[in-house]
Amino acid sequence: MNGARLSRATLVAGALAFVVASSGAAAATVHTVTIDGFAFKPASIVVKEGDSVEWRNTDPVPHTVTAKDAGLDSGEIAANGHYRFTAKKKGRFAYICTLHPIMKGELVVE
Amino acid sequence: MKQVPLVLAAALFVAASVANAQSGGPNDAQIAAIVVTANQVDIDAGKLAESKGKHKDVRAFGKMMVTDHTGVNKSAKELVAKLHVKPEDNPTAESLKKGGQENVAHLKTLKGDAFDKAYIEHEVAYHQQVIDAMDKTLIPSAQNAELKALLVKVRPAFVAHLDHAKHVQSELGM
Fold first, then answer.
1. Chain A residues near residue B163 by CB distance under 8 angstroms
2. A57, A69, A70, A96: which has the fewest C-beta neighbours closer than 10 Å?
3. Angle value at C-alpha B70, between B66 and B75, nearest 5 degrees
4. Whether B11 contacts B95, CB under 8 Å
5. CATH number of A29-109
6. How far is CA A36 from CA A55, A60, B152, B154, B157, in A?
């Protein structure tokens, strides 16, 4: 192996390691809840304060994610749309879809 | 007042009979036509309730029926196009259509509380019977896995609507 090739390989490896390290450091924790078949999956989710939760609506109809006491109100999330919320308030919050109140979920912020 | 649900019951009874007569149930093309018609029927009644309902809960329910069943129909139509299935007319779809037209015609003759009562009562009966038809005939008969999956996925919509309709019914003391 000649020196030039070795140093290039080292550089590439170094760059890759840097990218992995920085993306690891920058990544905020984003939790995902899938809305599927008129249900929140998982129905209950526990997150840390400052984490984000993304609800992904896979149903062909609009839904909402609403817990007024948590400051959470997505408005209508269109079919195949999503909504992201950053949890800033600790507590245990029951949320519903206001369009279909039969749909219930729970968000626990620690 | 009980006449409309009876027509519907007859239509869905035909669905069950078709299933029995053919031993394999309706085919996928027939199921596609039944699903699209079942949604369309409820969209038409919902549009009427949106404009004619006396109580705001009834108008809101009608609006939700239009939105949700339009959404379900859109995904059903996209799937059948993708699968190259051409919805095939059949006695069940025809009866559903006829029952829907009769329901709308009947509702048009009513006003105020009488309209709200008749509309919601029909919605409760309709959704219950569509759920029964899905469970007993449509889902078990669907051959294509994606069509079956779509039926399973949208079934909870009918359950949520049934629950909501019953809630409106009790709230309005009907």
1. 102
2. A69
3. 160
4. yes
5. 2.60.40.420
6. 10, 9, 11, 9, 11
Interface of A with B in 50-79 (CB under 8 A): 59-62, 79
Burial annotation A32-42 (CB, 10 A radius, 16+ → b, else e)? ebbbebbbbee
At B21-62, the pLDDT tens digits run: 445 689 999 999 999 999 999 999 999 999 999 999 999 999
Residue A99, chain B, CB below 8 Å: the answer is: yes
Would you say A36 and B155 are in contact if contact means Cβ atoms under 8 Å apart?
Answer: no
Q: Across the interface, do A60 and B154 touch by the CB < 8 Å criterion?
A: yes
Task: Determine, for residues A79 and B68 on separate chains, whether the beta-carbon distance falls below 8 Å.
Answer: no
Any CB–CB contact under 8 A between B72 and chain A? yes
B149 pLDDT higher than 50: yes
Tell me the residue range of the domain where B10 lies: 3-171
**Average pLDDT of the residues of chain B:** 89
Q: What is the pLDDT of residues A3-61, one digit of tens each?
A: 455 555 555 555 544 444 444 444 569 999 999 999 999 999 999 999 999 999 999 99
Q: Compare all CA atoms of chain B with the CA of A58 and give the residue at the minimum distance.
A: B153
For residue B27, what is the domain's CATH number?
Answer: 1.20.1260.10
Distance from CA of B71 to the nearest CA of A (A): 5
Question: What is the model's pTM?
Answer: 0.80
Q: Hey, is B106 helix, strand or coil?
A: helix
pLDDT band at B174 (very low <50, low <70, confident <90, very high): confident
Number of domains in chain B: 1
